[in-house]
Amino acid sequence: MKAKITKVRQEVKYLTIQELYQEKGYPLSFMCAVLEVARSAYYQWRNRKPPAKEQQDTELAQIIQEYHATFGRILGYRRMTLFINRLNQTHYNPKRIRRLMRIQGLKAEIRKPRKGHRKSTPQINAENILNRNFEAAAPNTKWLSDITEFRIKGTNQKLFLSVILDLYEKSIIAYEISRRNNNQLVFKTFDKAIEANPGAKPLFHSDRGSQYTSRIFQGKLQSIKAVQSMSRTGRCIDNGPMEGFFGALKAEMYHLNTFHSVEELKEAIDAYISFYNHQRFSLALKGLTPIEYRNQALQNP
């Protein structure tokens, strides 16, 4: 095993030397010295014909490096395997991808923050009808909603993101970004969801934030004959999939970057939600994206 690891590492060094020499014109002697490679060994590698399996491993290692950078360092070996296979119509084994990622020292860089509970003075309370039943038989039968906060480091600037998630395929069917955490933030998000899904009468689950417990919002739910459900006080797990989305968003985008303005952060949130809905392949959805899985169900009710 150690011999295989050493061999692939040498391949990566040789490829790096070749690429920098051909594309940048860097001196071979300098690069060989920096990477601790004998020039004779490099020339021997360059002129040889590698076995098919070794050549494929080298090419696959390059794809892994590219995807690791392209997708913001968020892919562990299982999801890396899924992304490579989906985007290249291949059938690589996860064990092979894991081995090549370990050799290159690559792994998912994900950090999950903890979230506190927001206190509110409710006008309306609802039972926890969802009761942690996070399965849905079809789109638009169960919607989850919540708000999360973002800060621009070193400033007092904040952004608030309101989201509605369809529990069937966990796609984001509506969201709204604002610098104010008020009722209008939630109301606009809900109106967008209804506009995009006319006729929907979902079970609507949220926490007990003041926006969701207001009489105006209850009126909006009643107008489409939706049933309201609320998490128990302090029990974030009652809205687990919604918390899971926010955790992924912050771990895969927010905490891996530094933002200097609310405009820059807003663009990044928009881009991540588009990526999440349309490009983030999911093992739980048979290798499809949330929107692909949703569209399949809507086209074949």
Characteristics:
301 residues, alpha/beta, Nucleotidyltransferase, domain 5, 2 domains, five-stranded mixed sheet, 12 helices, elongated
Describe the protein's architecture and organization.
This protein has helices at residues 2-23, 28-34, 39-47, 52-70, 77-88, 94-104, 183-196, 210-213, 215-223, 240-252, 262-278, 290-299; strands spanning 142-151, 158-166, 171-178, 203-206, 227-230. It folds into two domains: 2-104, no CATH class; 142-299, Nucleotidyltransferase, domain 5. The relative contact order is 0.11. It is elongated and about 80 Å long. With 301 residues, it is an alpha/beta fold.
Can you tell me the CATH topology of the largest domain?
A: Nucleotidyltransferase, domain 5
Element-level helix/strand string:
HHHHHHEEEHEHHEHHH
Cα end-to-end separation: 50 Å
Outline the low-pLDDT stretches: 116-123
Instruction: Quickly count the domains.
Output: 2
- Class by alpha and beta content: alpha/beta
- pLDDT averaged over residues: 87
Shape: elongated
CATH C-level name of the largest domain:
Alpha Beta
Give the topology.
Blueprint: H1 2-23, H2 28-34, H3 39-47, H4 52-70, H5 77-88, H6 94-104, E1 142-151, E2 158-166, E3 171-178, H7 183-196, E4 203-206, H8 210-213, H9 215-223, E5 227-230, H10 240-252, H11 262-278, H12 290-299
Parallel strand pairs: 1-4, 4-5
Antiparallel strand pairs: 1-2, 2-3
Helix pairs in contact: 4-6, 5-6
